[in-house]
Amino acid sequence: ENLWREPIYRNIWSLLYEFGDAEIASLIAPRKLIIEHCNFPEVSGPPQPSQNRSGGAAPGIITTPSYDLVKSEFDRACELVKPLNPDFNLILSEDGQPVCVSTLRKFINNLNGELKPDSELKNYLSRSFNPRERLKRQYQQLLDHTQYLMREAEFRRAEFWSKADASDVASWEKSTEWYRDYLHNEVIGYSPLANTPINPRTRCVYETDSFKGYEVVLDVYPEVFAYGILLVPKDVKDNERRPVVVCQHGLEGRPQDVADPSVNNESYHQFACKLAERGFVTYAPQNPYIGGDSFRVLVRKAHPIKQSLYSIIVRQHERTIEWLSSLPFVDKDRIAFYGLSYGGKTAMRIPAIVKGYCLSICSADFNEWIWKNASARHPYSYMITGEYEMFEFDLGNTFNYSELSGLICPRPFMVERGHFDGVAPDEWVAYEYAKTKRRYDLLGIGELTEMEVFNGPHTINGVGTFDFLHRHLNWEKNP
Questions:
Q1: Domains in the chain and their CATH numbers?
Q2: CB 3.0–4.6 Å: which of 18, 215, 302, 452 could bond 464 by disulfide?
């Protein structure tokens, strides 16, 4: 039940959604089962990062559970299969070491054999045997296998998507609903719908010549809320409904980074403020990817119960759209999403599921996402960083970024990319976007997607993307 405390290689997606140790043990019935309580090689934490790694492994420890804990789970397993009268045995090792005499005797007896007293095991270990070399071979086999799966992933995705009908826009929208549900249920993880009154709380925190800014808190679940900053242009007329741009921060970010007129972060360039000055209503939500290992522990806790960070983010954004749509100066059909970096990851996932966003802009994140996650060769890979929460179950065989953009289609979609952005090389971004562009073109809606590439780093550029927002949200530029 405490997989999240253990090394990350034990972090199994959705395991506890159906199976605890007792449930797994119950699958062995009516066959015989021996469980031995003994000492386990303990792990106090991950090794220190090696050379050329920008981050370390996830925290995690292994300790030997108490006999009482083991017996409690063993008793639960026996109760699950009680009608089968199973031959289940729990043995406490006499000396604490694995495969004690009692365990060995029971095992051999179950095979209709007999343990001879005082027998000695012969040592056949070759003098030339080197366990470190064997371990390296095993590691290399696993590595080669994962790299093979990475190369094969695009072909598996093509097979997975073979039932999508791209003959026309209507057929595409209808046939991709199944894929949207699959993404939500099997990759992101489906959380219950918001189940409390929205109970909005606001207070004015900023005022400039162009707009007023309000902190906003909305309830989602009894212990979960959505928070953000709303910027409202001062020139909104009575009975006028304006488009909204939801401006999403990146990793370790705050809404203030994009929406506070006194903060000029070099990555965001006050883009929520600048859009408000152009007459858009803007809203900067707080997403929960903040706090270092604190939020990553939430991910570790979520994965075994078939949830992810985005499971909650989906519900927070649904509630945000619900509230924004209720405001008298907001056009609910013109609510757009624009996110940078981790906000760009959000721009690929949330609008793919939440259809209340009428368009999406992915800034400083769009790339060949499967290579980015799984490559053991490229320096851009998450395999050598400390962002161990990135990995999503079976994503490579189901959704890359072109497929995620396919769930945004036929809504407008844009990529903003700096040549010097270290997220990925230009070639990866262009390769993946070409598939997105082709889809829109073949559906006869090529004008609804574009990519702007500029001479710059991991940052909001705010040129082509701003024009894109004006055009597709039908809002003329302020003179």
A1: 3-110 (no CATH), 169-472 (3.40.50.1820)
A2: 452
